[in-house]
Each structure stands twice: as C-alpha cells, then as structure tokens.
Amino acid sequence: MAERKVETARGIEAVLLANREKLIRFLVARGAGDSAEDVFQELWVQIARSQTGPVAHPLSYLYRAANNLMLDRYRSARAAEIREKAWGEHDSARVHPSVEQSLISREELARVDATINRLGERPAAAFRYFRIEGISQRDIAVRLGVSLSTVEADLRKVYKALAAMKGQIDE
Fold first, then answer.
1. What is the C-alpha separation between 68 and 45, in angstroms, rounded?
2. Are 129 and 140 in contact (CB under 8 A)?
3. Structural contact between residues 168 and 161, judged by C-beta atoms closer than 8 angstroms
C-alpha cells in the first residue's frame, strides 16, 4: 500500500514517502522514541499542506523540517514542564480550609472559569480536557478536529490569560 502511495505522490511528498524509514530512524535518533511515527505523520501533513515550489535538495529539506519538528516538540515539552511547576499547588499542607477561604476560593474559581470561557469554546474545551481530564494534547486535537499545534496555541492562549488574571489578583 505504501508503495502505491509513493507512485501517486509527486515532488517532495514522493521523496518523503520513499525515505520514510530513513526519516523515522533520524527522528528516533533525535529523541522521538516511540513517537517517531507520529512525528513523521505530522511532517507528512505539514509537507502536504505547504505550498513549496521546487526544492533543490528535497531530502536535506525533509531532514531539516523533521529536525525543526523535534525542536518544536522539545520546546513545547519544556514550556509545559515550566508551566506545571509554576502552577503547581503551593499550599498542599492545608487539609480543611476555613469557611472564609472556601468562599474566596469559589470566587477565584468563578473568575478563572469566566476568563477561560471568554477565550472561546475551543480553547476552553482544550484547557479542560488537558488540565482537568488529563487527556493528551494529541488526543485533544483528534477530539476537536484540529492540529496539534492549534491545541498548543489554544493552551498557550488560556495560560496567558490566566497568568494576566493572576497578576491582577496579586496586585
């Protein structure tokens, strides 16, 4: 079946499909591990959507594009790690909050909820799926029918709005 796809593909997409195994090995070597197939699929979608003209060295171009995808994934994972640490629970020792603290927390939760909802249905859903339900960003992209980068952009949008809201509360 893959050979048939190579026959029908043209240009850089044909080079991509013909060098699939090499590119997957390259991605594994760059740290993709079990996600190498997913990154390759992401690369394929990116190449299929792009409107590139003739490329002088198509295989080199594909290796560069694959490397850039790995860098984007690394940066995204690093940013997520930093966000997780920044938004982690700071006061987990308190078991039973006072009535006053409960009321304040409910008010803050209502403000957070309103802030998230103002950003739109898709970013709000992506945030809730990711942070509350613990669904992976890739699965969220499938559920919402958007690309992984769109989910990441939506999450960044929500985190930015929440950080701005947190800054207002701290003032």
1. 14
2. yes
3. no
pLDDT digits (tens, 9 = 90+) for 39-58: 899 899 888 887 777 888 88
How many CA atoms within 13 Å lie on the side-chain side of 50?
16
- Residues 6 or more apart whose Cβ sits within 8 Å of residue 137: 130, 148, 151, 152, 155
CA pair distance 107, 102, nearest whole angstrom: 9
Distance CA 92, CA 111 (A): 21
Q: Residue 129 corresponds to which amino acid? A: Y
DSSP per-residue codes, 20-74: HHHHHHHHHHTT-GGGHHHHHHHHHHHHHH------SSHHHHHHHHHHHHHHHHH
Whole-prediction pTM = 0.46
Q: How far apart are CA 116 and CA 136, in angstroms?
A: 19
**CA distance linking residue 47 with residue 106, whole number of Å:** 47
Assess whether pLDDT exceeds 50 at residue 91.
no
